[in-house]
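note to self: dont lose this again. the chain is below, predicted strucutre after it. 300 aa total, dont forget to put it in the shared folder this time
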Amino acid sequence: MSLPLSPDRRTLVTGFAFAVLVAVIWSGWMVASRYGATNTLLVSDVTLLRFVGSGLIMLPVFIARRRELLAAGWRPLLVLSMMGGVPYSLTSVGGLLTAPAAQGAVIIPGCLAVFATLLGWAWLKERPDGTRVLGLVLVVASLALLGLDQTSGGAWQGYAWFIVGAFMWAAFTVGTRFYGLRPLTNVAVIAVIPMLWYVPLVLASDPTMIPVAPWHESILQLVYQGLLAGAVAPILYTGAIRTIGPQRSALVMVLVPVLATLQAWLLLAEEPGSFTIAGIVLVLPGLALAGGAVRLRRAR
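---
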């Protein structure tokens, strides 16, 4: 017979469970996006389905918090919705057209850590300490190893799009702290505002393969992009940060490259090359150190 968990222990377990679920969803997002971009659907279709799903889910929150949004003004809404919205999705999914999911799962989080540190230093005056600098060095080394891996089918165009997407998400991440909106409000901003302008634009001007694509491809992207990655994962991550803190949450997030590589290997038959594996080995401690999840102490 198992003993009941104490309230503190239950909170800790719940927070870690939230963080692990987010890692699973975000790693699966790489695989689902790679599958969608390389089959019938266009990159613009995958992005459209993402914001149709997440926008409709977060619309009640957007309406309920309209006073907070009006008080913030137009500039935060424009910056956050552009950096965390359509351009980020187009560049990240577009990179998966020519680069494997495993490499995207290393490059995007790795470059995100680098850009977020630099933007935080420039924007918020948060100078990185020695531990974070060491983590960033390991991250850059892992990215260099991925650039040497020619056995996994990666292409420099895909790497370039990943880097651009990582910069945008880093700007969104630092911008959320700078502008001070509540976490769920940020999620509503990057879900609803893109839906209001991007979906009509695509339907009016761009070709779309959604009507002729197999129904299961569209449903997969609608559910995974819109529901799981666009709404559920940000809400769970917010809950994880609230219960176990940003450092522990960041530590669990280093699972994303490993889980994405395993899922891509099993579901897409994308076997990682030796340099990709070495890059994953380096990026794990690099992300943990750069994200503040692990601290190094000086010996007296």
